[in-house]
Amino acid sequence: MTHPVLDRDLLHRLMDGISAVAATPEGGVNRPALTHEDAQARDWLRQRFDDLGMRTVIDPIGNMFGILDLAGADAPCVMTGSHLDSQPFGGRFDGAYGVVAGLAAAAAIREAHTKGVFKATANLVVCNWTNEEGARFQPALIGSSVYEGSLPLADAYALMDASGITVRSALEAIGYIGDGVAPRPKAYVEMHVECAPELEHSGKTIGPFAGYWGATKIRAAVRGMQAHTGPTPMERRRDALLGAAYVMTELRALVGRAADVLHTSVGRIEAYPNSPNCVCSDVIMFVELRARNQVVLEWAEREFRGIMERAPAKAQTTGEILHIEYRRAGDFDKGLLDLVERVSAEQGFETMRLHTIAGHDGIRMANVCPSIVVAIKSIGGICHHSTEYSEPHDVEAGANVLLGCLRSLLLT
Amino acid sequence: MTHPVLDRDLLHRLMDGISAVAATPEGGVNRPALTHEDAQARDWLRQRFDDLGMRTVIDPIGNMFGILDLAGADAPCVMTGSHLDSQPFGGRFDGAYGVVAGLAAAAAIREAHTKGVFKATANLVVCNWTNEEGARFQPALIGSSVYEGSLPLADAYALMDASGITVRSALEAIGYIGDGVAPRPKAYVEMHVECAPELEHSGKTIGPFAGYWGATKIRAAVRGMQAHTGPTPMERRRDALLGAAYVMTELRALVGRAADVLHTSVGRIEAYPNSPNCVCSDVIMFVELRARNQVVLEWAEREFRGIMERAPAKAQTTGEILHIEYRRAGDFDKGLLDLVERVSAEQGFETMRLHTIAGHDGIRMANVCPSIVVAIKSIGGICHHSTEYSEPHDVEAGANVLLGCLRSLLLT
Q1: Quick one: chain A helix, strand, coil %, rounded to 5?
Q2: The domain B8-213+330-411: what is its CATH number?
Q3: Using the beta-carbon criterion (under 8 Å), do B286 and A266 form an inter-chain contact?
Q4: N or C end of chain A: smaller count of CB under 10 Å?
Q5: Domain spans, chain B
Q6: What pLDDT score does B198 carry?
Q7: Per the CB < 8 Å rule, is A89 touching B226?
């Protein structure tokens, strides 16, 4: 029996094809979730599913599944994939690579199956999850969270972007609100770019994530009072933006005081009324705390709550926690971790166990079935930026390891 | 000869009338320049001009002039007025009071003129300047700056709001791009609410501004690099929002170090890409420095430039000054100051000489003709807020003083 063989040219053609959808002059892509550009990427994927003889299923939250029937309608399935949405002016590989690697692996498996040299006992599914990024709509991982069951569909539909457009109306506008029944796999493997510099520093090729950091995402407000930036005496001002500035500088200082590695950020800020001549009355900050160590993560949250009590007061403003979303640190499936390492070794690739700090749909899938996310190198660790890059040989290595893993999972 | 007499009921009816245009539930108004709501206020004013038998002239930047012909087409004119645009969710009195007081004074003068008991040697003009506030479009004082000649019309037309809508297209959209020739007065008197607590603290009624503070308005950027808020190592981040936070806290600290009174603010902030999961690449701050003392103002600018060199570096980002607009401190016309004090005394109102910290169209008019801005009490000094308030008896006092000044100016 012959192994399915990856078509490298197809892999790179697919990568180039999706990279051309909403390409930016800087070399990245701009496909925030459920925009016209995301719809173009989805249309592109649906065409690829057709090309590969895969049946397309779209579920009510817009998750897309391409099903390659290898073992009959009643057989179990194995799933791979990632997401095609991007950050605003984000990179080409983040998400898209996992979908493309899945498509290339599916093409190889299909060819071997058609030739009769590969007899699978399960079907193969390649998926594209809705709004992994959480850029346009918060939270991130909406599609896989609905699929997993942790986010009710009605709640997901009601989420709004900054313009007040709901997920539901955005899905309807692009025609990707489906009524398909999503397949439930027996195993999930997701390829992704690392988004960090560890593989590059170590010189290793394949980085299976043994686990994932916890993340606490907080929407926090500073409340002051709108006033004239001219005559209002300085000592009477209650400047919410100044209060937020004190919060942000103190938040950053937590990093140096934490007992173990801690990442902090404020990526989004909304200021009201945001007029040059008005002292801001209200500022909303989107805060993230991330740590591998759950104790550190909980310490950081307590410290942040303290900052929200103290720091705004320096500007005669008050702090308010509006919303907290917790993602506890955890581990991926040990059996799949072993499988990735074994397949990589068979193919001559050195591996390095990593922990992912970024959120991935595979984290949600870990609650559905044995699941893992596997990284290839990100040059310079650059991610969420148009210059995000992974080299062709790494792109191939990852797809080959995925193919080897899927082959094994489809046979057992 | 009988003096023109103010109709108090009319004054309050006018104040109530304009307050109802784009009224907010909190008691303020929401009429940013050249919006649909501003157009409603303009339509309201045009109707009032018609009611009072005033000829309406609209110039190419949308400034509105209502001309009361008292002395024939070739006679000089005296001008009063202010602006009907507001801050987002701003107060009822800021701007509107000056227009309303002008209308009420015009009504009294017209009645006396019609009765033949008041023989003016000049005509009276009540005006409404375009975009005094500078909330939607920067800079502030667009209409009076074009009128004065310091801002070329073409440059003003090209200014854009945050959505990319130009002043020209916004003017066209509301139908207020005129071709009228604006009258040029021999004197300009503008009534305004104080927007500060000095009159209230002193117990005086009328506050003629002897002069105006200087203001230096700076658009400043912090440049970093877009990155993932998760895996990007903290020590490699170049977080433009964090850099901006350091700038804002250091800017505030200048106030305590200045040799004389200094006001500082960042009223508007724009962060890019402003996604919760992205380290910000770029942040733009709208900074204001204001001082009566020109030496302090220039010291503050030098200090701010130093902050922009140092503070962003703490976040591995860089500072950049994009644009600076200077308004030097200056004095209003001494003759008009004496007139306001004399008329107030005749009417039994105590006066207090003030300096305005806020910008006013009267500052631009000071370069056109003898000009002054006169304040009435702002309760609590509150301004640019929906609870901005001036008491009825102060509203009347100001209109009476305006009427007395106009009477004198129209006779000489």
Answers
A1: 40, 25, 40
A2: 3.40.630.10
A3: no
A4: N
A5: 8-213+330-411, 214-327
A6: 95
A7: yes
What's at B298, amino acid-wise?
A: E
**ω into residue A88 within 30 of 0, thus cis?**
no
Domain B214-327 CATH class label: alpha beta
CATH architecture assignment, domain A8-213+329-411: 3-Layer(aba) Sandwich (3.40)
Distance from CA of B111 to the nearest CA of A (A): 37
d(CA A76, CA B11): 81
According to DSSP, residue A164 is labeled: S
User: Would A8-213+329-411 and A214-327 be classified into the same CATH topology?
Assistant: no
Order across the sheet with A214-223: list the strands. Answer: A263-272, A282-291, A214-223, A318-327
User: What is the overall mean pLDDT for chain B?
Assistant: 96
Check whether B389 has a pLDDT greater than 90: yes
pLDDT digits (tens, 9 = 90+) for B199-245: 999 999 999 999 999 999 999 999 999 999 999 999 999 999 999 99
> For A249-256, which contacts have Cβ atoms below 8 Å and span 24 or more sequence positions?
A249/B242, A249/B245, A249/B246, A249/B249, A250/A307, A250/A310, A250/A311, A251/A287, A251/A304, A251/A307, A252/B242, A252/B315, A254/A300, A254/A303, A254/A304, A254/A307, A255/B234
From B109's Cα to the closest Cα of chain A, the distance in A is: 33
Output the CA torsion B298→B301→B306→B311 (10° steps): 150
- Tell me if A91 sits within 8 A of A29, measured CB to CB: yes
Q: What's the confidence (pLDDT) of residue A2?
A: 62
Check the CA dihedral B379-B257-A307-A309 and report its sign.
negative
Start-to-end C-alpha separation, chain B: 15
Whether the CA torsion B395, B401, B402, B403 is positive or negative: it is positive
The CA–CA distances, whole Å, from A107 to A42, A49, A101, A102, A406 equal 18, 10, 10, 9, 12
Say yes or no to pLDDT of A1 above 60.
no
User: Which residues of chain B from 355 to 384 reach within 8 Å of chain A, CB to CB?
Assistant: 356-359, 381-384
Q: What is the 3-state secondary structure (H, E, C) of chain B?
A: CCCCCCCHHHHHHHHHHHHCCCECCCCCECCCCCCHHHHHHHHHHHHHHHHCCCEEEECCCCCEEEEECCCCCCCCEEEEEECCCCCCCECCCCCHHHHHHHHHHHHHHHHHHHCCCCCCCCEEEEEECCCCCCCCCCCCCHHHHHHHCCCCHHHHHHCECCCCCEHHHHHHHHCCCCCCCCCCCCEEEEEEECCCCHHHHHCCCEEEEEEECEEEEEEEEEECCCEECCCCCHHHCCCHHHHHHHHHHHHHHHHHHCCCCCEEEEEEEEEECCCCCEECCEEEEEEEEEECCHHHHHHHHHHHHHHHHHHHHHHCCEEEEEEEEEECCEECCHHHHHHHHHHHHHCCCCECCEEECCCCHHHHHCCCCCEEEEEECCHHHCCCCCCCCCCHHHHHHHHHHHHHHHHHHHHC
B252 has a pLDDT exceeding 90: yes
Interface test with A, best of B232, B234, B263, B288 (most A CBs within 10 A): B232
Structure tokens at B206: 């009328």
ipTM of the complex: 0.89
Rounded to whole angstroms, how far apart are CA atoms B105 and B396?
Answer: 11
| Residue A272 backbone phi and psi in degrees, to 5 | -130, 140
Looking at residue B3, its pLDDT comes to 79
SS3 A103: helix
